[in-house]
Write a structure and sequence with these properties.
Distance between the termini: 43 Å
Largest sheet: 7 strands, mixed
Radius of gyration: 21 Å
Number of helices: 14
């Protein structure tokens, strides 16, 4: 199945205004049908689970559908889905739940590719409980150093927590191998998949991971976090929750308080939208073509950090234009109708130490609603800026 990008773009009001959004890692645009689903839920299902009348039944149907849709998206049982505010909140919540019986001196491994939303929860937990945190290094081309991971695994490591792909430089991590190494050492494998799930087909069974967390607003959905937890783990963990709240299904135990049901409805509309396009396999193929075109067109005046081809990466690119501050590049391009971001760390504090730029860099992030014309236009603009 080929992607009809013109038909896709007609489903987004925000894409009809002549501005090129090339900033997907910061959050994608949202199709109108997702907003309509959220509005409909607020109109017709503004209540709570358990109400003994029609509104309560509508809320229940929204929740059941969202769990089923998430299960299909992740290839897991709907029972093993946990919803939350976003990846970072889910990470803070679940990390504390998972560690209830850990002991002082236990070790946590995080990686230099990670967004701090996947690092800070473990650092704060270690400060509270006397655990040790250590970094898994990266190679010269900014891949995860699997050899370093193997060297640092021992019987005190309780969890290996890392990204499935970098939000800064686009590198994809070998998730199955990381999960295998963690499992052999008796540790949990725990993945921040915010960028990965927005661009790659997900099958948590094939990946072999224990915890896998993503955020729907990266793949054309609402601001809602979605996590998978291995069923045996979810059943064994004692949750932080109000005592009368339901313990079933397993994932529900880790969702304290009333959920944003209207966002659940928007999430289901998002999954329906993605499936109507042929699913993530189709979108991945198209995005890789766009990424290859972008890389092939980059002028010599642009320095790209990390992998130089689309092999082993997502269409997320960190770069700088020779002689032009990143902030100036971003501002100039915005004025010319191209949306990209500039930043110093990209929240990847461990990776920042390995990047050679002095102050900031710009990030380009492509997604399936971007066009060849937008990519070619951006490349031309970058070429025109060099001093």
């Amino acid at each position: 199945m080929l992607l009809d990008v013109d038909a896709v773009r007609k489903r987004f009001s925000s894409l009809g205004r002549g501005f090129a959004f090339l900033d997907a890692p910061g959050g994608s645009q949202v199709p109108d049908e997702v907003g309509a689903a959220i509005a409909a839920a607020l109109r017709d299902a503004s209540g709570n689970l358990g109400a003994p009348y029609e509104t309560g039944r509508r809320v229940e149907a929204i929740v059941d559908r969202a769990r089923a849709d998430a299960g299909r998206f992740l290839n897991c049982s709907p029972d093993d889905v946990v919803f939350g505010t976003n990846m970072t909140v889910l990470d803070f919540t679940l990390s504390r739940t998972a560690s209830r019986d850990w002991k002082e001196g236990d070790r946590i491994l995080v990686s230099r590719l990670d967004h701090d939303g996947g690092v800070a929860p473990w650092i704060e937990l270690a400060a509270d409980r006397g655990f040790e945190v250590d970094w898994i290094g990266v190679t010269e081309d900014l891949r995860l150093d699997l050899g370093d991971l193997e060297r640092k695994l021992d019987d005190r490591v309780r969890v290996v927590a890392c990204v499935a792909s970098s939000n800064a430089v686009g590198t994809i991590v070998d998730v199955p191998r990381v999960a295998e190494l963690a499992r052999e050492a008796g540790a949990l494998s725990w993945f921040d998949a915010v960028q990965y799930a927005a661009h790659e087909p997900v099958d948590v069974q094939a990946l072999g991971c224990d915890v896998f967390i993503c955020s729907a607003y990266k793949f054309c959905g609402p601001h809602l976090g979605v996590a998978y937890g291995r069923h045996e783990l979810l059943e064994s963990w004692r949750p932080y929750k109000a005592r009368p709240a339901s313990n079933h299904p397993a994932g529900r135990r880790f969702e304290p308080g009333t959920a944003p049901y209207e966002l659940f409805a928007g999430f289901s509309a998002t999954i329906a939208y993605l499936e109507s396009l042929g699913g993530m396999e189709v979108l991945r193929a198209y995005e890789h073509e766009l990424g290859a075109r972008f890389l092939a067109g980059l002028p010599d005046s642009v320095e790209l950090y990390g992998l130089q081809t689309m092999d082993g990466r997502l269409p997320t690119f960190l770069l700088n234009v020779a002689g032009v501050p990143a902030k100036e590049v971003a501002a100039t391009l915005a004025a010319r109708g191209y949306g990209i971001w500039h930043h110093d760390t990209w929240y990847s504090l461990g990776l920042r130490e390995k990047l050679p730029y002095p102050e900031e860099a710009i990030r380009v992030g492509l997604i399936h609603y971007n066009t060849v014309e937008e990519v070619d236009g951006l490349v031309a603009q970058l070429g025109s800026l060099a001093r």
